[in-house]
Write a structure and sequence with these properties.
Elements: E1 14-15, H1 40-46, H2 51-62, E2 72-76, H3 82-89, E3 93-98, H4 101-110, E4 115-118, E5 130-135, H5 146-159, E6 160-171, E7 184-187, E8 191-200, E9 205-215, E10 221-231, H6 235-244, E11 248-254, H7 255-258, E12 268-274
Parallel strand pairs: 2-3, 2-5, 3-4, 5-6
Antiparallel strand pairs: 1-7, 6-12, 7-8, 8-9, 9-10, 11-12
């Protein structure tokens, strides 16, 4: 999976001074490729240890306690495998799915014994059936229409065994009200990452612009760039879409109430449902 990226950069980083020249917000032409493909290594490097430590108390309470040992678990929108690693460590039989071939390639590199598939969550089709499905780091906010979100939930329901557990988190509107238009910079010896977000309160669409400079072996700097979009939904819309997909025992739990103690809890809600 604020934004999957925008919220992540709320941890302390170097920030461009207020009088620094304003970099233009350059539109990126979207193709059939995932918007994460171009900046996959940036995502993996900068957010490897950010989400899971903060979310673990909530995941422990809402998901892990409900999963039997050796259960089959679907990690939907698994990214480069940050949460998948924890699922594997706990002994679950995990299948990770993500639309980004580049992120899946990293996940396979990092977790060679785990199973990964490149699939779009909106057209999910799994041969196996799972005791549980997990989607983390507001990944489902990347689905940009309510109809597509409903189809995603239907695909997850079809992939679960009866009574299968589905847990995911999404951001509501207050999560998108922070850090708007402010560049956040991460500087390392051979890389420089820049991230900033914007939010259209009328359209309820958020964009995160990411620029990644990598120093190559010939000491030249190579640039990678992408814009990642998210949609903000009302909690009632999400619950209604789950009901339409025939989920039951639906709960919506604010991240703070679920045990998240960092600023990642701001505007984030965990949803729990049974197939």
């Amino acid at each position: 999976m604020g934004l999957r990226l925008l919220s992540a950069v709320r941890r302390p980083r170097t920030k461009i001074p207020p009088r620094a020249p304003e970099l233009p917000f350059i539109p990126v032409k979207q193709t059939a490729r995932s918007s994460y493909d171009e900046i996959a290594e940036m995502y993996h490097a900068l957010w490897a240890n950010w989400y899971l430590p903060a979310a673990l108390p909530a995941l422990e309470k809402l998901f892990f306690l409900g999963m039997p040992a050796r259960a089959r678990v679907l990690d939907l929108c698994c990214g480069s495998g940050h949460v998948t690693r924890e699922l594997v460590r706990r002994g679950y039989r995990v299948t990770g799915v993500d639309a980004s071939a580049a992120l899946v390639a990293i996940a396979r590199r990092e977790l060679p014994k785990a199973e990964f598939q490149v699939q779009d969550a909106r057209t999910l089709a799994m041969e196996k059936r799972f005791e549980g499905a997990l989607s983390t780091f507001d990944s489902l906010n990347h689905i940009l229409s309510l109809d597509e979100l409903s189809r995603t939930f239907a695909g997850v329901h079809a992939a679960l065994k009866p009574q299968g557990l589905f847990v995911f988190d999404m951001n509501l509107e207050e999560a998108y009200s922070m850090d708007l238009r402010q560049w956040t910079v991460d500087i390392a010896e051979d890389t420089v990452g820049l991230v900033r977000g914007s939010y259209d309160f009328t359209a309820k669409l958020a964009s995160t612009e990411l620029i990644w400079f990598i120093r190559s072996s010939d000491q030249l700097w190579r640039q990678q760039r992408s814009i990642v979009e998210q949609r903000c939904y009302e909690q009632a819309e999400i619950v209604a879409a789950l009901e339409a997909a025939h989920f039951r025992e639906i709960e919506a739990i604010p991240a703070r109430d679920a045990g998240v103690r960092t600023d990642m809890a701001f505007g984030r809600v965990f949803f729990v449902a049974r197939a």
